[in-house]
Amino acid sequence: MKKDEVPQDEGSLAKKNVHELCYAVDENGRYTTVPSRGWEVKTLALNESLELIEERIAATKTAVIAGQLSPIAYFMELNRMDIPLLASYVGIHRWFVKRHLHPTRFRKLKEKTLRKYADVFGITVEQLTSGLC
Fold first, then answer.
1. How do residues 84-112 score in pLDDT, each as one tens digit?
2. In this model, does residue 133 exceed pLDDT 60?
3. Torsion of CA 103, 125, 85, 51, to 10 degrees
4. Hey, is 33 helix, strand or coil?
5. Alpha helix (H) ranges present in the chain?
6. Which of 110, 75, 77, 79 is nearest to 96 (CA)?
7. What's the CA gap between 33 and 66, in Å, rounded?
8. Kind plus residue range of the DSSP H or E element containing 34
9. Tens-place pLDDT, residues 29-84
């Protein structure tokens, strides 16, 4: 893309007076950075993906309230984590994290394990065990 072809659409970036750096070719054929105010196609794709994430969070919250999943599943979705990532942050094997997603096993977790999860999620143990925020 040439320097004068970098999109400057009025999107969510422009509303917040934020620019994104894009690479473009200048008059001499060299790559250079050019600030962009947004690109409609990119904005639409990002908004769509954020809507899908919000739907997943809502579905997980419903499953936790219904007693089908533990609160770990909700906070995992809220923080956009998957089992391997959460396991690496908590410092336990992913097999255990998967087991901890079951409400009956979650209720049997020791304080030390709950604290590890709470620390990773940036919440207190009470918030983790007492329900959803």
1. 999 999 999 999 999 999 999 999 999 99
2. no
3. 80
4. strand
5. 12-15, 40-65, 71-78, 83-90, 94-100, 103-107, 111-121, 125-130
6. 110
7. 50
8. strand 31-36
9. 889 888 887 777 777 888 899 999 999 999 999 999 999 999 999 999 999 999 99
**DSSP bridge pairs for 36:** 20
What is the reported pLDDT for 84?
97
Q: Look at the block and give the residue holding tokens 């750096």.
A: 21
At 11 the pLDDT is: 66
Q: Which residue in 87, 56, 88, 89 sits closest to 74, CA to CA?
A: 56
Provide the residue type at 78 as one letter.
L
Give the position of tokens 């998967």: 98
- Tell me the two tokens of residue 88: 């690496």
Radius of gyration of the chain measured on its C-alpha atoms = 21
